[in-house]
Write a structure and sequence with these properties.
single chain, mainly alpha
């Protein structure tokens, strides 16, 4: 197999791009949540799950099922805050790039 010197294979670069996209989306939502002036009841849940997503991303290839669980908790806790909607959608789109969570066996 031919490889360019210093270049990762295409599959690895694709994974790196997905991870980097998720990292950027999570960082943006964390920043926007940090400066959002109003307090709301489930803010701590959103902050904890964003921290969990950030930790998964820092570890390399995150687990899809766990990312989706975190996403659901984040959406449930800040989904009604319209000012955070665009950043939240960016995180959702980034998680979607990792594909569907595997279904449990019946």
């Amino acid at each position: 197999m031919l490889r360019s010197v210093g270049k990762a294979p295409v599959a690895e670069r694709g994974e790196e791009l997905r991870v980097e996209g998720l990292r950027a989306a999570v960082a943006r939502l964390r920043r926007e949540l940090a400066v959002y002036p109003a307090e709301f009841r489930d803010r701590a849940i959103a902050e904890d799950e964003l921290a969990a997503l950030a930790a998964m991303v820092a570890g390399g290839s995150p687990e899809t099922a766990r990312m989706r669980r975190s996403l659901l908790l984040i959406v449930g806790s800040i989904g009604s805050v319209s000012a955070l909607g665009p950043a939240l959608m960016e995180v959702r789109d980034a998680v979607d790039l990792f594909g569907a969570a595997p279904r449990p066996p019946c």
